[in-house]
Amino acid sequence: MPLELIKEVNGVLEVNPLNKLQKVHFTSLHAGCDYSQKYIQGILANISSLTYDGNRTASLEVGLQEQENSDSESNTINISIFGKLAKDCAKVFYKGDTIAVAGFIALLSSPSRDGEHCLVLKAFEDLKSTVYVYVKSIRDFSTQSVSLVPKSRYAYTPLNELKAGMVVNVYGVVKFFKPPYLSKGTDYCSVVTIVDPTNAQLTCLLFSGNYDAHPMIYKNGDIVRFHRLKIQIYKNETQGINSSGFACLTFEGTVRTPVTPRTSSRCFNLTAEDCRTVERLRVWASTNIEPSATAVKLCDVQPVQYFDLTCQLLGKAEVDGASFLLKVWDGTRTRFPSWRVLIQNLVFHGELSEIERLQNLTVDILVYDNHVQLAKSLKVGSFLRIYSLHCKFQPVENQVTSLVLEFHLHGGTSYGRGIRVLPEDNSDVDQLKKNLESASLPAIHCSDTTYVSDYEDSFPPILTDHQYLENSQIGTILKQKAPQQYRIRAKLRSYEPRRLFQSVKLHCPKCHSLQEVPHEGDLEIILQKGEAKTPDTKLQNTLLYDSKLWTTKYQGGRKVAIHFVKNDGVLPPSNDCLILIEGGTLSEIQKLANNFHSVIPVKSGHEDLEVLDLSAPFLIQGKTHHYGCKQCSSLKPIQNLNSVVDKTSWIPSSVAEALGIVLLRHVFLMTFTFDDGTGVMEAYLMDSGKFFHIPASEILTSDDLQQSLDTIMDMFCPQGVKIDAYPWLECFIKSYNVTNGTEQQICYQIFDTTVADDLN
Description:
Elements: E1 3-9, E2 12-13, E3 22-23, E4 35-47, E5 51-52, E6 58-65, E7 76-82, H1 83-92, E8 98-108, E9 119-123, E10 130-136, E11 147-148, E12 167-182, E13 188-195, E14 201-208, E15 223-234, E16 237-251, E17 267-268, H2 272-288, E18 305-320, E19 323-329, E20 348-350, H3 352-358, E21 362-368, H4 372-377, E22 383-396, E23 399-409, E24 418-422, H5 427-437, E25 463-464, H6 474-477, E26 484-496, E27 504-507, E28 514-516, H7 520-531, E29 545-551, E30 559-565, E31 578-582, H8 586-595, E32 598-604, E33 609-611, E34 619-621, E35 624-626, H9 652-658, E36 665-675, E37 680-687, H10 703-716, E38 729-740, E39 743-751, E40 753-754
Parallel strand pairs: 1-10, 3-4, 7-9, 11-17, 14-16, 21-23, 31-32
Antiparallel strand pairs: 1-2, 4-6, 4-8, 5-6, 6-7, 8-9, 8-10, 12-13, 12-15, 13-14, 15-16, 18-19, 18-20, 18-22, 19-21, 22-23, 22-24, 25-40, 26-36, 26-38, 27-28, 27-36, 29-30, 30-31, 32-33, 34-35, 36-37, 38-39
């Protein structure tokens, strides 16, 4: 198991899975050694945020401090964790935790300015790495609103031992539940399915005339304790129902949160053993129960989706006898405009000035049927979780290019549909409050329309630069000869590639060739060839640059040379400095690029330093890699950098020109399938940034830019709705002839077209 939590009570481990492994001290770590059966242990000194690379692989960076050698200079080491293991660790890591890591690899980082190399450990599931987190027993719970009554010790029955007719006490982890709802009689009913480490599950059907007497479950993963639960067989399935004297407690399922019981009763029994049971179930559930995938923020909502929303109630109003309006927000803004209910003629409860201030951060939810009565009782300002909320696209009347999101809580209880009020001390409420406090508020403006859409300008057709041309029908265009130029108004039926980061290619403006952006693994292989060659000391310390040579302590004494390019004979500060590196690894080069303005990988030639290989980037600036065309470039010696006038900006085109390199452009290469009702046309887009207003050279290293691109394409080609509801787009198309052997065909390309600024 890649992530394991080790329970520690009063300093004693309940189980120690590290007994069979050999512990290694930080000072004994060396690059290239086998650590598959060894582990290191320490305290988490720092934890980065979870990040993603261009292939959407998660990574987490942590600093681990060794306890035994706290006075040593080498008492802290950096660890990089990747993939699903990184995601799992991000959920449970806290600064100050004691962790152990087994099955890792040790690599040398890039050299510092004084020539020192640092070890970096890497852990991921493919390497069979395992991370162990020590979890101390937590017994704190609030007693402000409850009293503890000593009673005889209760016995609890595992779920796999239940038999019909038994009246039992059980613990379980919530796998599914329905919030309390009014049954056909006078009682409220709730449904909960629980599991335990025996892998058995039990569905319980609970009735009570008191709404608050039901288990206070807020999400899957919560832990419940039921006393005096009666077991019966219903439709050949074991079922639990409440019997006389039934009582319940609910606990949050998050590891290391306080063991605070949720109950409306003021008299219950809670022992230290109960706390240990809750903690054991939390640890078990954290690695055996998948967290709910239905909890979604408004900013991540997709059309035709059912989801759970944690939010704050800002206002409410009765619309008619069968529906009720809730105005809510969660601190984020939907990616699409949302429908608004006209409230002028309604009796509205809430601060309209506050709602006006928040503008498009709020959404309107219509609640129906059996949920209306509960919605009426909700207090403005309370924190809610709304379960199985339905989101769908709806065209705006008389506006064929506009779509809005509608939110509905339908009647019934299918899929756990309902509403729960969350207490102030709930951990999800704590996170919600942080989101609300940090929300980016829009500029204030007013609208009196029924369908208020602050995104109305975000749904225009694609804008063009040639407004004088008339629209042409696709059916007509397909019958005409090439080359010609057209303006079309159509809907985007589909596009390729669907994984948008795969659309980025490298294009040569001279020979017009296209090539894939090299993968990280390919770059490592190319750079390894440079590592094998020893730097020529005769080419060091010239008028252009100062040089420094290092020999690695491991890896066979690999030699690395770094040349610091001067500006008028003076070394500039690091943020303006271009450096040349010989013999560096990819990780070393990337770290240097984070500390210096620019990096050029080079090798020693006969008389001068030379660019290493145009299969790799010839210039690296931060996270951006600049490539050159191998076919069109005529490489010049590095000393030609003297011809670059501005030796602080290091403009890529200037560097490329000085070195005889034809600079490749990062471009988006996509195929759009347009449909205007008269015909279907495939047109390709090749654009470096004008069309989307997003630089193609930066999107592979920016999650935010990838999110922006996803948003734009979701607006143009929304999923889950019929094409009739798609927005109309306008763009320019040019046709041209392509000869393939003896056959000639007409192709189409988008040109001189740009997305409206409001979409970005």
